[in-house]
Write a structure and sequence with these properties.
Length: about 400
């Protein structure tokens, strides 16, 4: 490949922050909230102009369960606060009445603690929470490089409408979903083995209202040849989500699938039209941190001395599974003041499918945000102090 050497240049220093959170999906929102509430000066850099990431711009508007499927809540604290915030101005479907209105155990078993929320209302609710906590939100801003000295990130390089600038950091939380900051900083990462099936979740309206179509919800093998879905998704290719050309191809294929499925086959009218397509690529698992500890499915019902929260398995086949989140799955071995939260925490491929969902993103976000306010270096944390603070803030650490 032909190469070009980028000329060296001086960059203005935008500011100095105790904590910079890169990425404003559910993980980034939880991390920024926890760090700011812990007393840190926090900057949240988000390359889009909305919060929520896949959970809003990606139209993935199902806040999966906070419970184990047997009537017991596992995820508390900010994970529950964000679920409630997402429906503060109305919900789309599956209101968890049994959980929010003191239902019986039987009712909690028959309706897991999840909800379908409205993306727009959720964005605004999360903005309000962050601003109340004193977080500075910088939209339209990509973190595109880092400067590392003696195993610590000193500055992040930002790119936005003003051009390039640097920001001086105490510590950094990588909530990019793709472990971008870990990758830039030379922290150990690994890519997902199988890649992602094409997804094309979209909204359409008809006489009955506005609906989410979870198009491409399943693996290709589960689709039935000859059906409308199968034909619209016929380019069966797997996407890894880390290459600009491939991501563009994926989004183009996703738009084409929506078009094939919806616009060609249905009669259009004012009561029947597309209302939204995703403005962020719908990739599930791309690149993640290789943490000090890597979670696996065998961690079900395992107790961790460094647990910083709990979560279940959202799948119907995972009912009754209970996981404690070890703090050591949230930071690596090379860069002291860098931690991750969200869909790029340290979990092997089968476990990744469990950890990537919104409640776990919020649980991990709260854990590292709280840690960021206790110590600049994530590897040197006083775990007891961190756990005490999390418990004080409503988090349940152990399955006892
Ligand atoms: C098709 C599909 C269906 C799914 N279904 C569900 C479901 O039903 N329920 C559920 O709970 N989960 C579901 N998930 C998973 C879930 O939506 C995501 O894994 C979760 O929302 C990820 O949150 P996150 O904050 O870790 O990352 P993301 O939501 O990916 O957020 C990352 C944010 O970082 C920003 N960013 C990225 N790089 C940079 C950078 N360098 N600088 C600045 N900003 C950056 C992005 O713009 C984005 O806003 C689904 C995912 C997909 C793709």
């Amino acid at each position: 490949m032909e190469m070009f050497i980028e000329p060296q240049k001086q960059l203005p220093v935008y500011g100095s922050y105790d904590t910079v959170v890169a990425g404003g999906g559910f993980a980034g929102v939880a991390a920024a909230l926890a760090a700011a509430r812990g007393g840190n000066r926090v900057l949240l850099c988000e390359k889009m102009f909305v919060l929520g990431g896949l959970g809003t711009a990606g139209l993935v508007t199902i806040y999966l369960p906070l419970c184990d499927g047997k009537g017991h809540q596992l995820s508390f604290g900010i994970a529950e606060e964000l679920l409630k915030a997402s429906i503060a101005d109305g919900y789309e479907a599956s209101y968890p009445k049994a959980w929010l209105e003191n239902g019986s155990l039987e009712e909690r078993i028959s309706h897991r603690y999840y909800v379908r929320y409205n993306a727009t209302a959720c964005v605004i609710a999360m903005e309000k929470l962050l601003l109340q906590a004193g977080v500075e939100i910088l939209y339209g801003t990509s973190v595109c490089e880092v400067s590392v000295e003696d195993g610590r990130i000193t500055h992040l390089i930002l790119e936005n409408k003003s051009g390039r600038s640097a920001v001086k950091v105490g510590n950094v939380i990588d909530c990019t979903g793709d472990a971008d900051i870990c990758h830039f900083a030379g922290e150990e990462t690994v890519n997902h083995g199988a890649g992602n099936v094409l997804a094309a979740w979209f909204y359409y309206c008809d006489e009955m209202g506005n609906h989410l179509k979870t198009f491409g919800a399943t693996d290709y093998g589960a689709e039935v040849e000859g059906t409308k879905e199968y034909n619209a998704m016929a380019e069966h290719r797997y996407y890894f989500g880390l290459d600009a050309r491939e991501l563009s191809d994926m989004v183009l294929a996703s738009h084409k699938s929506v078009h094939n499925y919806f616009l060609k086959d249905e009669k259009l009218s004012q009561n029947h039209m597309l209302t939204s397509i995703a403005s962020i690529p719908q990739v599930r698992m791309t690149r993640r941190l290789v943490g000090k500890y890597t979670m696996t499915k065998s961690d079900d019902h395992k107790q961790f001395a460094d647990s910083v929260g709990m979560f279940g398995n959202w799948r119907g086949s995972g009912i009754g599974e209970i996981y404690e989140l070890p703090y050591s799955a949230l930071y690596g071995r090379k860069v002291k003041n860098l931690a991750v939260a969200g869909r790029c925490i340290s979990a092997d491929d089968p476990m990744w499918d469990v950890t990537r969902v919104i409640p776990v993103c919020a649980v991990s976000g709260q854990a590292v945000g709280t840690a960021a306010a206790i110590s600049q270096d994530f590897c040197d944390i006083n775990i007891v102090k961190l756990q005490e603070k999390l418990v004080k803030d409503g988090v349940k650490l152990h399955n006892v």
